[in-house]
Amino acid sequence: MASLGRPAPARTPFAEARFMKMLDEPLVVSGELAWLGGDRLERRVEHPNPEVSTITDGEVSQQREGREPRRFSLKRAPQLQILLDSFVAMLGGDATRLEQAFAIQYSSIDERRWTLTLTPRDPKLVRTVSRIDIDGAGNEPHCMRMQEADGDLAVDLLGNLAAKMPAVPTRDALAALCRGG
Amino acid sequence: MRPGGRWILLATWLVVLAALGVCVAQRLRVSTDLRSFMPAPTTPDQRLLMEQVGEGPGSRLLLLAIAGKPDEQLAALSQQLAASLRKDERYSQVLNGSFDIAALDEQLLPYRYLLSPTFDTHAMDAPFLRDELEQRLEDLSSPAAGLLKGLLPRDPTLEVLKLAERWTPPKSPDVREGVWFSPQNEALLLVQTQAAGFDPDAQTVAIDGIHKAFDALPGHEGTTLKVSGPGYFSVVANAQTRGQAEWIGRISTVGFILLLLLAYRSVGSLLLSALPIASAALAGIAALIVLFPQVHGITLAFGFTLLGVAQEYPIRVLSHRRAGENAVQSVRDLWPLLLTAIASACIAYLAFYASGVNGLKQLAVFTITGLLVAGFSTRYLLPHLLPERVHDVAGMGWLVRARRWVDALRRPRWVPVLVALATVLMLLFARGAFWQNDLSALTPLPQDLLREDARLREALGAPDVRYLLVLEAHDEQGVLALSERLQATADALVARHAVDAIELPSRYLPSEAVQRARQQRLPDRATLEHALAEAEQGMPFQAGLFAPFIDDVQKARSLPLLTEERFAASPLGQRVAAMLMSRGDHWVGLGTLSGVHDVTALQALAKGSDGAVRLLDLKETAESMVVAYRTRILHALLAATLLLVLAITVALRSIRRAWHVLAPMTLATFLVLAVERVAGVEVSLFHLVALILAAGLGLHYALFFERDTGDAAEQRRTLHATLVCVLSALLVFGMLAWSSIPVLRAIGLTVSLGVAFHFCLSILMAPHARQD
Fold this sequence. Notes:
A: alpha+beta; B: 32 helices
């Protein structure tokens, strides 16, 4: 766990696919995730539409070209709270924080590859996000799968894997990509 | 009277008092609304002021600050406190910065298409919907997805969020962890109480409720909850006044009892002399209960103070007892003078009745009833109970010496002239304003409380309590239309920084005309379905996802338009109700102002409206009211003075003798005024009340000193009685003068000075000594 830690600011390219009940096709965006130290996280989307979201002091601000910035409390976006918790804890190498927020299950596939399964301890959070799987190899996480309680799924490919996001991803294809990467 | 008869009389008297006491205790309903001590409003502005002072949105607002823990925990406490208070009927609105969709009733949700201005500038057509849906797709792939996912099928254009934004207070504090925070790291809340701001008892209940709810929250330990606002101030002021009046009252009661024991050396006499006063107080309250539905707390407090005059009656009787003489006989001799004293005090207090102020009317009824009961029971009941044999005070050595010294005093004729001249000069050359017009100068609030309030008010952007925009039209719709027309000018003023924010009623409730126009612009089902299908082309939204949206738009097309009445059921409607009110033949709307920087710009806005819009300066209106109030009381006093001169002249059957009684009293009254003015005191209504009380006491001194019995022993008894009265008055009111509360100090200082001056001048100007 501590081996995953790195100094801030830590940046990594990401590509995200979201599978939602209300949509016939998954939504795909890509860009860069940055941990700015502390509880500050920046999510910069470059494709298809530029957008920068930052989390500071429990507040999320979202900026798009030609639009008024939108601000809201982190409390109202539990998915984001979980992303922040897991991301910051992981990059900060903070095992205690991770354990406070989640029940952790570690399994290794072979010598290098592993999967961390995080289940939120907060009963309110678990009602929106049922679990997160983080796949990695060595000291490099390269895939985060967030399973929402209503069946929706968000898969984030990180680092080098981000470039391998298929044009029209499917749940199975991404799962295979994550486990195999 | 035979001893048996005396006991029967005593027992009967006590039983009647006890019965009266029980009856009073059961039926007395004390009100604490300070407005009944304010003058009756005469102009529409004053009427509005009186309502605003007590019930206006500004005065019912409590400002809350939670401090002492990290932001996250404070935010959680803020949310829990807000949730708990929202369930409580005592609070009409609770805001803490978090937007709560529940604020808009489920049934009112379709009204968003009539309330939101979005479709005034855009048609609900395919290109508009396409643009919105594209944004929603971006939203869904953004961190806000979780937030919006639930809203989307029903509200793809996010009208609910737009309305929430529109309705958040115009100048909100920082939002952290989802709730308001001050720069000093306190979580802030705004709570509007149902109770009127200047009803300290109701506010106490409301504030206690907040503290109880807060103390019941898990994790509140280690944090502090601060409350501020007009309602809180009225509670503090009330408690302080009550607290000080109580301890001062306790000390002076003990002093008073000691003084009487020293003067008459008889526990029995002391206890018996309390009977007329007790009867007076109970009868006074009983009269109030019969005549008024509610008795004001201040009436009772001031009333008991003013009844202090009545204590003189038994004192006079006790002092004027001659050795071996029957008490009934002593009283009979004293009665004509006592009756004059009672009548003149009643006439003076009658002035309060003429003031037209409900609280003062009650005061007049209470004191006049009390004085009459005290006087007549002293005359017809008390003497029968007093012991047959008494110690004649006239024989006391010190009294003989004192009387001799007083009689030997030189009384040059120029003394009154000199005093009068000095009084006139002092009045002429006193600095500063003569009258105190600012009611708030009498509020005993510590400066740091006021500073704290100003800080929180600034942080919360809470409306100014001094200025209000008043919109008038013949009906509710007229007011709303006016408010809509005013919006552009108001926005311009805010842009120019003349004022930080203006909140008009149409911000929450558009006029029916605007609602109808919006309703008519909404597409019918077929058109909307078609437009939506076109917009959705090539987008991944599931078929039929937006059916709830189409249903809501159709519902909005046929909804009865939203009126204040229909809106009032929801929490937000309460806010509208506070800004719109019916005035019989017309309607009034209120615009609240935050951070007024340029009053003239606001006045100009009002001037350009042909009288439909006015800038109401609550402070100025309050002052104009105080002035009108005082003028009325002064007129009443003038009338009372004339009546008094007449009454005394008739009673004494001599203009010359009346002059000897009235001259020292008048001179002493003006002397008190002059001395206070020179000391820099601005004269308030309470000073006037106190001057009248002192004049009443002074009149008694002058009446008794003027009485020429030609009997040296009787003159000594007069001096004894007057000394006891003066000392007891000085004791009671001198204590009040030490109070830190301006109202109590004003009364204490004025009456103490008055008693001293009246006493000295009555002696110096007593006529017969000079004739020796």
